[in-house]
Predict the 3D structure of the following.
Amino acid sequence: MASIRWKILLAFFLIVGISFIVAAKSMTGIVSDYLYEQRRRDDTLKTEKLAQKAAPLFQSVSSSELNDLLEEEAETMGGRLILTDNDGKIQYDTFQSLCGQRIQVDEAIRILTGEATEDYSIHNPGREVVETMIGEPADYIACSAHEMNGYKGRIGAALFVSNVQSMMDSVNRVQVQLIRVFAVIAVVALAFALLLSRLLTNPITAVSRTMRKMGKGDLSVRVPVRGSGELRELAENYNTMAAQLESLDKTRNQFVSNASHELKTPLATMKILLESMLYQPDMPSEVREDFMQDMNHEIDRLTGIVTDLLVLTRMDNGEEMKRGIVNMTELTRETIHQLTPAAEKNRQTITEEVQEEMFLYGDRSKLSQILYNLMDNAIKYTPEDGQISVSLREEDGNVVWRVRDNGIGIPEEDQEHIFERFYRVDKARGRETGGTGLGLSIVKQMVRMHDGTITVRSTPGKGSEFVVTFPQEGEEA
Ligand SMILES: Nc1ncnc2c1ncn2[C@@H]1O[C@H](COP(=O)(O)OP(=O)(O)O)[C@@H](O)[C@H]1O
Ligand SMILES: [Mg+2]
């Protein structure tokens, strides 16, 4: 599993590791270069001095004096001293063993062939060779050669062989020390990386764990909001989304249960009526007629509810608007005409105040439904002999409908709920008047689809006024 966590750890490690290796390499490089350079200068200078001191004696025949000098110098310089003549034949050797032999050391040979006047290198020829060369066990030796000059130029070469083990050891010690430091840094870095990756990934895992739970159907789970920055935002946004989903889910469930309940009531009523008719064959025909009227009424109710539900679900499913230029003046007059018989039945009067030549870019059938539902309510919730007024006007560039009545009104506390699905102020009365509680929620949604707003002002016992405002921006066509 290539989780973020491991990626962070790996990245951290690579960064620390690479930068350390680079730093360690250059540090040991600097240190060993410095130590080597010091030693080289030192040894070369010593060899040069020796060559100068030894030259006059080398030319004379006083070999014992030169032997004494070499012994003394070998003691103070700390190493083996060898002098050769121009032919490479070893004339003096503080270890004696090579006297008379031909010199094999490259540094000295380079002096004798005239390639250089001084030469210096460190060698690692193996312990045994070193032991025979300087009489001490070591891995590293330094060979420093310098030409020896007489009156007439070069007369031979001076070679100084010494033990450089301790210098090489210091270089190694620096390396070991650096490796130790690295180990400590690596452990600290690892701890940091672990902590950091946990800080980073914990909120993410929390969100994903919560999402999994939510996916299984538990919409009440939330992510703990901690810390700051993007991760906090992630958790907060996630929770907002979850809350919205949950409330959507609740609304939907409530809608389904409300709808079922609404459908059940007329069905139950019809069943009772039907059963009484079935089990009382000798029922007087007027009563039977009455029952059948009631059943017919219930069927109308059912049809009304189902029609409303269909309208709502179609809108919920994102039904397309059939937009066009709608003559609002005409539409308003038509709707009033349509509802006049119902108002006349209640001996209510409808007064209209419709501005001429009003147009709106919208869905004609939806606009008509809006006004129909509002007027239907005004008629239903206004007692006999009531007054209903409908107006269509242009106000501040908007198309405005006002539907006013002097009916029963709506209590203050119910006003904010009447646009909810199935909400009725007086349940019993609503059923009796044939209402489903869906009318205003349909109106509200249709108004919203036209980018409009709907407001209500009402005083119980005095009447209500619904105001629908449509912006006219969409009317350009
Ligand atoms: N003009 C009005 N006067 C008084 N109450 C109203 C009016 N319009 C709506 N209401 C209240 O708002 C509720 C919701 O209205 P609506 O959604 O159209 O449902 P319905 O008309 O089916 O009862 C109604 O039940 C009623 O209580
Ligand atoms: Mg209604």
Summary: The chain has three domains: 4-172, 229-312, 320-476. The radius of gyration is 54 Å. The pocket of magnesium ion (ligand 2) is lined by residues 373, 376-377, 435, 439 (CB under 6 Å).
